[in-house]
Design brief:
It is a single chain. With 321 residues, the chain is α/β, with parallel strands linked by helices. It has helices at 5-29, 45-52, 68-73, 78-85, 119-133, 151-162, 182-185, 190-196, 209-224, 255-262, 265-275, 281-304, and strands at residues 60-62, 139-144, 167-173, 176-177, 180-181, 201-205, 230-235. A five-stranded parallel sheet has the order 1-2-3-7-6, with helices on both faces. Strands 4-5 form a two-stranded antiparallel sheet. The structure holds thiamine diphosphate (TPP) and magnesium ion.
């Protein structure tokens, strides 16, 4: 499938933004200035971006505890995200959510989620709304291999299938749930699980933007056409610990270094697009420089922003209709 130039440029920018955002957070978190927990998406960029490259603002996604990449891929601005992670009042959730609760409903980003397996049920609700309202929208749940074992996820697959919902289940399989290998913790296969609920199954290399784009495109088109849910099993790797501070003693020596050297989605993207002259290096270099500056500014602005006022504590607790 021929991907338009502006989609390629936008997707590269989104992947580069996620990478730089995460690499910078890794450094900033170590200073102790960032409250709470941070889980980095570094290494998994092509998945969120490849999937979201098919979505509009009116489509819905639900994310995980490792949610920064999904937010950026769905168009949430880095200034508001960085401020949120620093707990500042200028944050996208006014500094009250932090890393694991970034949401922007105006962009169809229902939120990062500290509850493993919390996204799939939300997506059934969102997909039911899309179906009832007949707005042509699709709802996508990103979840991990660990979350694939949660009852909530399996119930959601069932519900989405029996209600024929426009829902896409994206299993981001990075091989580990915390320190436990998925080869140990996941019985059977994701493919068999999808088949068990009568759901079409797709799978792809999550370090190759083009593979994710093509595969997710088919799954999303299936759901958008009213043919019911689909599952996309994305194989990828996380480059940092489960959370910032995890010593990763459960990974083999050199495992991550090898993945960084050989399976870097940004390097693969650049090699492919320049080799077949879809884009030139200069345009990619320009994006790199502009993103570097954007992230730098986001950190400066977040650090300078005020914390929420005490009076804000009870605001936004309940929704008013
Ligand atoms: C319901 C629930 N159970 C357990 C946890 C603790 N926990 C947080 S992340 C995680 C592992 C999730 O693994 P996976 O779904 O593969 O996502 P990954 O971290 O690999 O992106 C666990 C067990 C939780 N947050 N929520
Ligand atoms: Mg995992």
């Amino acid at each position: 499938m021929q991907i338009p130039r502006e989609v390629l440029l936008r997707s590269y920018r989104a992947m580069r933004t996620i990478r730089d955002f995460e690499e910078r957070l890794h450094v900033e978190f170590a200073t102790g200035e960032i409250p709470g927990f941070v889980h980095l998406y570094c290494g998994e960029e092509a998945s969120g971006v490849g999937v979201c490259s098919h979505l509009k603002d009116t489509d819905t996604i639900a994310s995980t505890h490792r949610g920064h990449g999904h937010c950026i891929a769905k168009g949430v601005g880095v200034d508001g995200m960085m401020a949120e992670i620093y707990g500042r009042s200028t944050g996208v959730c006014r500094g009250k959510g932090g890393s694991m609760h970034i949401a922007d409903l105006s962009l169809g980003m229902l939120g990062a989620n500290g509850i493993v397996g919390g996204g799939p049920p939300l997506i059934c609700g969102a997909a039911l709304s899309h179906k009832v309202l007949k707005d042509g929208g699709v709802a996508v749940a990103f979840y991990g291999d660990g979350a694939s074992n949660e009852g909530t996820t399996l119930e959601s697959l069932n519900l989405a299938s029996v209600w024929n919902l426009p829902a896409v289940f994206v299993v981001e399989d990075n091989g580990y749930g915390e320190a436990t290998a998925s080869s140990y913790a996941c019985a059977g296969t994701q493919k068999d699980r999808a088949a068990g609920f009568g759901i079409p199954y797709f799978e792809c290399d999550g370090t190759d933007f083009f593979a994710v784009h093509e595969t997710a495109g088919e799954a999303i088109a299936h759901a958008r056409a009213g043919k019911g849910p689909a599952m996309v099993h994305v194989h990828l790797s996380r480059w940092y610990g489960h959370f910032e501070g995890d010593a990763m003693t459960y990974r083999a020596n050199g495992e991550v270094a090898k993945e960084r050297a050989e399976q870097d989605c940004l390097k693969k993207f650049r090699e492919k697009v320049t080799e077949i002259s879809l884009l030139d290096s200069a345009s990619l270099d320009e994006i790199d420089a502009s993103v570097r500056d954007e992230i730098e500014q986001a950190v400066i602005k977040a650090k300078a922003a005020p914390l929420p006022e005490p009076e804000a504590l009870m605001q936004d607790v309940y929704v008013s209709y």
